[in-house]
Amino acid sequence: MIRECLHFLIEPAKKLKIRLKESRKKVKLDKKEPLLESQLFIMELARELNKICQRSNVLSHIWTGEDLWAPTVCRDFIMVEWSSELEKHVQPRSRSECERPEKRDWREQLLCMLESGGEGDMGAHRRIILDWSRQIRSSPEPSVWPGEPVLMMLDDLEFQWKRGRLPTLLPAMELVLLAVINGHAPIKGDVPKLWLQRTQSRRSVDALRYVPHGVWNWMCERAEEVFLDPDSAHADLLLSEGNTKMRCVPERGAQQRDMPCCPQRFTGWWCAVAQEGYTSGTHYWEVEVGDRDWRVGVACESAVRRGYRALNTHTGFFTLRLERGSELKALTVPPTALPRSLAPRTLGLFLDYDQGQLSFYDVDKRSHLYTFSHNFSERVFPVFGTVEVLRDLVIRPAHARQPCLCPGACLWT
Fold first, then answer.
1. Strands 336-338 and 367-373
2. Better pLDDT: 405 or 125
3. What is the rounded distance in angstroms from the CA atom of residue 356 to the CA atom of residue 371?
4. Mapping DSSP to helix (H, G, I), strand (E, B) and coil, where does residue 285 land?
5. What is the pLDDT of residue 350?
6. Are 330 and 313 in contact (CB under 8 A)?
7. Tens digit of pLDDT for each residue in 204-258?
8. What is the DSSP string of 153-209?
9. Alpha carbon 127 to chain centroid distance?
10. How far apart are CA 100 and CA 232, in angstroms?
11. Global confidence as pTM
């Protein structure tokens, strides 16, 4: 009887217990993994750089946790990429500073406590970065004006990250670091160049694809005319009058066996080189390659052009190749396969001879494809190859390069 009277209380209590249990289970499932030392350190570094570099608010997405990097990315950033670079800019401590016990703030104590979580090998690398940031804050000029080119690039990178074209704001963090390191340099415009060299060479395949339009404009300013050398062209290649176009005419070679025998002529592969080679400086040119079969890059002056030797880095050729319209690869040893989706219709090439970099870009998407790194020691020539019989491979004139005119973040890419 009493039980029946209290039934109206027992049943709601049971339901409440079930709901609480389900709620705890949901919270447990939704609970995020705790942050590791490397991730916390990146967040604090972003906060410090935001204080040092004027108008670098783009980094707020990092230190608030909105842009959270994977632990492996954080570790590579700290240990592989930046600790050795910043060590060059850290002044050695005086003896009194070394003997004085160091007072740690709560953030550093938290990082030290987390070292037992499997990332304790980062201590020395983290210390270098902390010493560098501490020296910047204690200098007579604790803040740095990055310059308008850098600010425009930061706005562009932030805009593309919000659009989903950038997985993280890591390139923005690197740009701010370079701006702070070179904060008192007389020419602020060198920072985009340094950023380009660093970003697109250290990871030839996995480097940042998107190129900020400020850097793109800087490359386009180095565009120059490139003309094919008729004396180097295979006998089956038909060159235009201006020596800027070529296509394959297989029966042409049989009809012109009386062509002069030049030592620089290709006799095996259907290729040709440019009239002018390079031994220094930066150079940019563009090629309309189509979507079937081509190879484009540079060739060393001593590279053998006769016969059917492999055209790869071991024989002095640094080229990209699209084969049968489906296989895009960098002709390294062994070849480096690239996603077919990256195959461009118009290919841009940027050669920095002194830095030993040859980079390839998709002109239409303004994105990076691949970078060769090599210490060039002789003259190199732009090289072109095709098996197309219906469509020309075209070297675009220098004035065809169109810089981006957007005042801030690029709205067209």
1. unpaired
2. 125
3. 10
4. strand
5. 96
6. no
7. 455 568 888 888 888 888 999 999 999 999 999 999 989 999 999 887 655 555 5
8. HHHHHHHHHHHTSSSSSHHHHHHHHHHHHTTT-S-TTHHHHHHHHHHTTSSTTTS--
9. 27
10. 70
11. 0.79
As a CATH number, domain 220-400 is 2.60.120.920
Cis bond upstream, residue 334 (ω within 30): yes
User: Between the CA of residue 340 and those of 52, 180, 181, 295, what are the distances in Å?
Assistant: 42, 38, 38, 15
The pLDDT value given to residue 27: 44
For the residues of 124-149, what is the DSSP string, one character each? Answer: HHHHHHHHHHHHHHHSSS--B---HH
CA atoms within 13 A on the CB side of 177: 24
How far is residue 210's CA from residue 216's CA, in Å, rounded to a whole number? 10
Contact 394, 333 (CB under 8 A): no
Q: Where are the domains of the chain?
A: 37-199, 220-400
Only one residue has tokens 């972003």, namely: 46
Phi, then psi, of 65 in degrees rounded to 5: 85, 0
pLDDT in tens, 303-355: 999 999 999 999 999 999 999 888 999 999 999 999 988 999 999 999 999 99
Q: Which of 46, 62, 124, 56 is nearest to 90 (CA)?
A: 124
Question: How many CA atoms are closer than 13 Å to the CA of 173, on its beta-carbon side?
Answer: 26
